[in-house]
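User: Could you walk me through two proteins back to back? I'd like the raw sequence and the structure tokens for each, with a short line separating them so I can tell where one ends and the next begins.

Assistant: Of course. Protein one, sequence then structure:
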Amino acid sequence: MKQWISKLVIGLSLAVFSCLLTPETTEASQGYYDEYGFYHEYENLYFDDDYDSEEENYEQTVEDDTYYGDTTEEQLSVYYGDTGTLATPSSWIDKQGIETTITRAEFRCDDDWNEVIQLSSDGTYQITGVGEATVQAEFYDMADRCLLTKIYYVVSGLNMNGVKLNKTSATSYVRREEGAYAISQFEFRLKSTGNRLPDQSDYYDVSCESSNEKMSASAYMKENQTIALDVYGSGKTTVKLTVNGQTFRVKLNIIAVGINKNSMLLSAGQSGQLKIYGMKKGIKWSSSKPSVVKVTRDGKVKALKNGNAVIKAKVGDFTMGCAVSVTTPERCKTIRQAVKIGKTCTYSQPQRMQKGYYDCSSLTWTAYKSSGISFGNSYYAPVAAAQAQWCVEKGKEVKGGLSETNIQKMKLRAGDLMFEEGADNGRYRGIYHVEMIRGYVCQGFDEKGKAILGIAWANRPDNYYWPAGQLVCHP
């Protein structure tokens, strides 16, 4: 009995002593002494559960103390040129029904390079383009907590209400010879009384439709609010233009016109008549050299002295013309003889001097022989090289030859001869061919109203030879 009591006293003493000793750190592998003094290790499962529970409670506490705010979205439809300010609410009621005062707001664009909107941090904006942009606004409370994030999807368009065209009808003229391929170009400007419209063409969507199936149309936007409209063919049509959803209609009258002659050969004192097909009135006639050729208000041409001139016929915004060459009666006879030979006779070098046949040199020799010029041989046509040598030795060479400058300045004369060089034939300057100039042909006018000229040949189609400085002589 005494022995059992002694063991109990010793065990209680050790237990009390162990309780008084508190370690600085406790790890999962440490244990404890029971009331009898026996040592026990802590179970890892018990220690881990207790630690995990404390960590979860800590995380739950942090999550409950941090508020990330609510998020809303809104589509904002605006027009180019609009200005305004995105509103900042005074307070926000969250999902739990708690209302909090908003003390600060921040606005920004997600895309710093967008061209649609210019935005300040306080929400002030100006719409500077057409398209889409995204704006984000964040609203904070006094503790600088974000209560609300608001996303604006900005969609910008053009306000076409009240927009009109500067004109709703137009008349134009085209060359009758071009037929369905003739093209007329029109321009229309947008007019807005109050709404702002951009100058950039990229912000516009343009389409068109012609009421006349025989006249096709296409349209596109130019800068400065200008619509370019191209119409093919001639006649009357109503074109429906659609610009960013707004429809406009324009009535067009495209008249096909033509001139009866674009080249004329006269001698001093002779007259000719020019006519415009497709028009009877409203034609304005003029002469580039009234001292050489004059023209009346009804298109009658009168040759006054030797030279060259262009008769211009202006119909609305369209201009046509006829190039007139005035020379002596003898030279006119020579040119007409050359034209006749080329049309009525057969080309043959072996039979060149026989009746009903010709080659290039026999044609020019025969035509000039009738006016007393035989190029040094009155009985037989010299070859082209011999004719050129005779002209050069007589000082008849034209400076610059067949060049674009000489053509456009009308330095060449009706009846001049053009010689082609470059053959390895042992003849003078390697010349192998000759042609006679009948005069000029008016092909049209440039943007400045200057005539575009070509050469009319006695035995070739107009503009047959490329002007490359070939030898030209004036017999």
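----
Protein two, same layout:
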Amino acid sequence: METSNILKRVRKIEIKTRGLSQNIFAGQYHSAFKGRGMAFSEVREYQYGDDVRDIDWNVTARFHRPYVKVFEEERELTVMLMVDVSGSLDFGTVNQTKNDMVTEIAATIAFSAIQNNDKIGVIFFSDRIEKYIPPKKGRKHILYIIRELLDFKPESQKTDIGMAVSYFTRMMKRRTTAFLLSDFYTRKDFTKELQIANSKHDVVAVQVYDPRAKTLPNIGLMKVRDAETGHEMIIDTSSSKLRKAHTLYWLEREDALRKCFNKSKVDWTSVATNEDFVRALMLLFKQRS
């Protein structure tokens, strides 16, 4: 893609997503992700009604009267976007590709983060770590992230979510809020890796899917291609049996995904490329507030 074209698209996405983060998400983002980390600040004498679990026994023993720890909210968060850049994200039949929507969601979260003075970084992954952008602050950093989201070309077309989540857990030493953005087309179970990551950090998942993944249209013969393997085949969409099998496969996959997130205690939302991702994110933030 030409540099001038990229810059135009970066600017377009900045205008749209920065507006969303300022006008819609500022309060929701703050209440959904702030206050989950509490930093020890000081001690003071125990007062009636204080939680006995906050008593600092070392200070209490030294002064022979009870003292409690005073905590303050950790204002600054580190936010990490884990972005799936595998081949299946290039697919789109309505309005835009899954990749387009992931870019807009990622940019909106990024602008929400810097509005709250948080650092933000990105892990691009396929079945390998394609690129790691360390967390930083500032508009310049956000625009660099958006440019990479728009123009990044992965080396691999395949997906390994468990590998990416494990990498994130190893890399981030300090407690981090992570957004896992993917269509979750993967043959490998990643529940264990997600459980470990979410026990140390705060992981949130956003599934982006194309509506045709759920329901096949009745349009006769259709050539389909697996974006990750390159395998092509002709299917007959006029077959009601085929269309039912396709929907059943989708429902089974979604059920397995739901169980994975529930077991890992990960909050998640799902949005189709022909839907408004603003509503999906608002609901996700609301359930965490």
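DSSP finds eight helices and ten strands in the chain.

Let me know if you want the two compared in more detail.
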